Amino acid sequence: xxxxxxxxxxxxxxxxxxxxxxxxxxxxxxxxxxxxxxxxxxxxxxxxxxxxxxxxxxxxxxxxxxxxxxxxxxxxxxxxxxxxxxxxxxxxxxxxxxxxxxxxxxxxxxxxxxxxxxxxxxxxxxxxxxxxxxxxxxxxxxxxxxxxxxxxxxxxxxxxxxxxxxxxxxxxxxxxxxxxxxxxxxxxxxxxxx
Length: 194
Known about the structure:
By secondary structure, the protein is α+β, with helices and mostly antiparallel strands. Helices cover 27% and strands 19% of the residues. It contains four helices and seven strands, in the order E-E-H-E-E-E-H-E-E-H-H.
């Protein structure tokens, strides 16, 4: 186990284990700690939350290999991921389409702040395609954002420089890309008019 530093953090607090296998190691650990009475059902998709006559959520309906299953519960927790796959440039899994948000909304939950979407600043982009996420641990280990001329772009934008929060670094990168496109457009227009 190791503690890492990431964006917007002032001290090392992100737990890492097994190199790039952190998630697998944590899941294995948590599964090992489950009570023997706990039953884990895989390969089922929740498609509706159940409500009683008072409007309280009391369970869920799922579809799976065995057909439709009804689960009743005193508490229902949705941990379904976000809606990042709605964007063409994303590190999200293609299944992150906001289904959990839709489930909650259809069951009467109040949904708010949907206009706020977090964009990760270090998406690896090659040949006009998202190739995956460059871990925030890279910034924590001293990685910096540079422009095409390898000049740092975070200087003067935030006290934490490249460890600034995601919304600040992502906006700086976005503005940098717009600036490059604007320069290319001006150069192209100049050549055409010439």
